[in-house]
Amino acid sequence: MAATKDSKEQKYDRQLRLWGDHGQEALENAHVCLINATATGTEILKNLVLPGIGAFTIVDGHIVSGEDAGNNFFLSSDSIGKNRAQAATELLQELNSDVSGNFVEESPDKLLDNDPEFFHRFTIVIGVQLPESTCLRLGMVLWSASVPFLICKAYGLIGYMRLMVQEHTVIESHPDNALEDLRLDRPFDEFKSHIKSYNLSIMDKKDHSHTPWVIIVAKYLERWLSEHDGQPPKNYKEKEAFRQIIREGILKNENGGLEDEENFEEAIKNVNTALNPTKVPTSVEDLFNSEQCNNITAQSSSFWVMLRAVKEFVYNEGSGSLPVRGSIPDMIADSQKFINLQNVYREKAMQDAAAVSKHVESLLQSVGKPPESISEKDIKLFCKNSSFLRVVRCRSLAEEYSVDSINKDEITSRMDSPDSEMVFYLMLRAVDRFYQLHSRYPGFRKSLRISGAF
Amino acid sequence: MVQLVGSLRKELADSLSTCKVLVVGAGGIGCELLKNLVLTGFKNIEVIDLDTIDVSNLNRQFLFQKKHVGKSKAQVAKESALQFCPSASITAYHDSITNPDYNVEFFRKFMLVMNALDNRAARNHVNRMCLAADIPLIESGSAGYLGQVTVIKKGLTECYECQPKPAQKTFPGCTIRNTPSEPIHCIVWAKYLFNQLFGEEDADQEVSPDTADPEAAWNPEDTAARAAVSEKDGDIKRVSTKVWARSTGYDPIKLFNKLFKDDIMYLLTMDKLWKKRKAPTPLDWQQLEVLVNSEAPASGLKDQKVLDVWGYCQMFQDSVETLSSQLQEKGDDAELVWDKDDPPAMDFVTAAANLRMHVFSMNMKSRFDVKSMAGNIIPAIATTNAVIAGLIVLEGLKILSGEMETCRTVFLNKCPNLRKKLLVPCVLDPPSANCYVCVSKPEVTVKLNVQKTTVLSLQDRILKERFGMVAPDVQIEDGKGTILISSEEGETEANNNKFLSDFGIRNGSRLQSDDFLQDYTLLVNVLHTEELERDVEFEVIGEAPDKAPPPQSNQEEVNSITNGNKDSAQPSTSSKAEDDDLMIVDSDEEEVAASNSAAVATGTKRKYSETGESSAKRPRTDQSDAADDEDDIVALD
């Protein structure tokens, strides 16, 4: 086991640096269904098999044609006449031995007729080049089973894709440029007493220049607040004045010049973001107010149970703030001072997570579920990411295709502009409709083929 | 009616099947590109790559499998592609594109050259070859979810070198040797140490305490005197690290005690250094051994755990033993080459760097993090490379249709931007009038000290490293045509260690530097100065100063396309991805920096240079749709 873990780490090194081991775990637990192993379909699956999804199943009732062998890298001329699902599975499987490849030699419509629940088992279903009727039928099945459905089409140099999922919740959204959660504006008790344990004015040079910048900002902020009726520096001018105060705190050498104290430089540099008020992001606030959060039932997913627990925390123990994240950025400091500071945040984060955990427990109890149905580990991860939670919701295909589509007027207004991408959308819809009526694509007459020219 | 072959006009389809194209690089983008080219109908393809296949390539370079590890990328890529598409004719070269065999004549064979490279030096070189041969070049790069494709055509567009690229970050020698303050300093030191012990010894990669550190001396005269002594005989008389290590039989414990005890105790005697800094704490193997606590190793990904000191001691011991026996197997005078994907080499650097971090009271780093800094690792996935390779073919089709004016530089973003575009096309800029490569008479001014700069460092550091020449010939414009450097082996070697002033070069001298292979002549104006910062050998005048790193230092994503991970003469300074190692194929660095998804996501304004027809004229679709997240069209212009 250890050996396989090591070799996986090596093989997947370059992507682990992008989505981390939780991302990889999610990938490895995924079972992806591809309907129709067209060139587009196999290209999509290639990009999922290489990074190591757990399994894939290709559903395809077609036989490999000469055209397939010509435009599909994963079908060769030897496979002409074979079932397309089988032929593509064989070659795609070669890309990664950690992935389990399966195929079903059946059209999706047959499966929908005989066993619609077949599709419930997948993490996601990707349908390529499906006729409108199949999209709508399958869309309905997957929508009610909460399985994400991705529709793809490609004609010449034009492509289209559409994701359908009732709700997709994201705990680790890997935000870019996330602000640190340092609570300088509302220090918790343990942090306050940690700040008190420092006295910059009696320190020797070495300690002074190895005090973490967070402590420096906190110290000077205390002074500022006492001199400004408890109001922190808000605008540029005040922040500049605050920076100047910190600058004056840098030790002087024998000749009266400034010592080189990088930690102070760091403090000055960080003033701007460090003084951002701690608050619940509006995106999370919106989730707090959503129906799924306020109405926890036995059917609620663990995401919503934990979200509700965090909400309870914010309105109670948290006094308006989310649980402390518990991580701090790297900073100039000696190891001991850094570790001490880190521990202050880490311990507070654990306390907060424990409080959230209590709420989770009573929520689960209230809907008759055992408290261990959500693990401590998951609650900790949820708390750590509570500022970045995301929920993606889509409209169903049925709704989009119904005549009273909410943006009907907008679509019509765009039709006048030949540059509008809406034209592509409408043309693709029209092509689908044409196929539905005539069982052939426009421009195809017998075997003669005319489509969009490059 | 237009006659079509597949999705292409017949004339275009015909020209694809007859034209010859060159793919430089058979890695992440190269594999995808070869697939796309054969599927599009290209029949005559040549591919060159000097690399061999590594396990870490397999997550995306789909033409390779486990059984191919260690084989030539170009060769295996060719064989795999032919298996899928036997009708194509592919020629593979397992070689460096800078090899003189690939001269201007070679490049002229092609209708189109496509770069799928991972380093700046090779990109510079192919840029010059394509300018010299006047062949259109498609340049590309990817980093994580981000990517970029652009087109370079002599006289019409900017060349790859029209915009100055930020230099690699280097660190002063005394920071590395005496006073590291950040983990990266320890990692650089550990990589130097690897070369000193097992690899090619380089005088610029000393690892022992630097007695000439100006900060350690009591007065400037003293520094100068000590520096002079160490330059004159110190370095010559001193036994090299490698010779000493060999004399101990690469005994890991002796090495450990020298590096982390004796050398550190020596540093402590330079007490001036530690007046304001926290002094380092020497480590002693025997003492650590006594304190071992045998905790069970934690679960989870091993690479991402930070071990305790003894853990790194053991990693040090194990890796030294493995590496020294590898060295022994190779025989006398053998040298190992450091490679981040070679486990013992990576273990050695992880262990040595962490032990040094510990000595200097820094927080230790996991092997995973050390690897990313030491190896300048850029995250990479198949999806991004597939998109980029697709865009390369689309630009190629425009070029072959004679529609050069419709070519664009295209950025791939992580998330759709404010206009809901994942792919953002921008107009190509015309050549820069100040480019030192593609103007008709390239000229630069270099500030240096003629009394301290040797001919060798003019050749290696300035002409090769900085100005991308492969084999320069240099003539002094002194009326006599003195040859300073000849690319013919042995002709001017005697000049190497002489100073420029020995040849009468002074302020205002002009040096004509030629690279025959690149068909490139650069006139270098010398500006003599005695006021260069320590550890700075020269400065190029008139170029934009290196831009400061992006304001958010902890971004997870690289800001723009990188050169790739093979650029790392110096490791990156960033602990995440390599935001210092940016390569910008585009016009304006700030524009590119702002185009990253982060900036877009937070609503930062972005300057567009898009053309009317590609998108500026299009009505913005995002305002009215804002409430409506299920808008599903992603336009691929």
What is the topological layout?
The complex is a heterodimer of chains A (454) and B (637).
Chain A: H1 2-11, H2 13-28, E1 31-35, H3 39-49, E2 55-59, H4 66-71, H5 84-93, E3 100-104, H6 108-114, E4 124-128, H7 132-145, E5 149-155, E6 158-164, E7 168-170, H8 189-196, H9 205-208, H10 213-227, H11 236-248, H12 262-274, H13 282-288, H14 291-294, H15 302-315, H16 335-366, H17 376-384, E8 390-392, H18 397-401, H19 408-414, H20 422-438, E9 444-445, E10 448-449
Parallel strand pairs in A: 1-2, 1-4, 2-3, 4-5
Antiparallel strand pairs in A: 5-6, 7-8, 9-10
Helix pairs in contact in A: 10-12, 11-12, 15-16, 16-17
Chain B: E1 4-5, E2 8-9, H1 10-18, E3 20-24, H2 28-40, E4 44-48, H3 73-84, E5 89-93, H4 104-108, E6 112-115, H5 120-133, E7 137-143, E8 146-152, H6 173-177, H7 183-198, H8 220-237, H9 241-247, H10 252-269, H11 285-290, H12 309-330, H13 343-359, H14 367-374, H15 382-400, E9 408-412, E10 423-427, E11 443-448, H16 455-466, E12 472-476, E13 483-485, E14 510-515, E15 520-528, E16 538-541, H17 589-594, H18 597-601, H19 612-616, H20 622-625
Parallel strand pairs in B: 3-4, 3-6, 4-5, 6-7, 11-15
Antiparallel strand pairs in B: 1-2, 7-8, 8-9, 9-10, 11-16, 12-13, 12-14, 14-15
Q: Indicate the proportion of strand residues of chain A.
A: 5-15%
Anisotropy-based shape of chain B: globular
Which architecture of the largest domain in chain A per CATH?
A: 3-Layer(aba) Sandwich
Helix content of chain A: 40-55%
Number of helical runs of chain A? 20
The poorly predicted ranges of chain B are: 226-237, 544-560, 568-637
Using the CA coordinates, give the radius of gyration of chain B. Answer: 27 Å
Round the Cα radius of gyration of chain A to an integer and report it. 29 Å
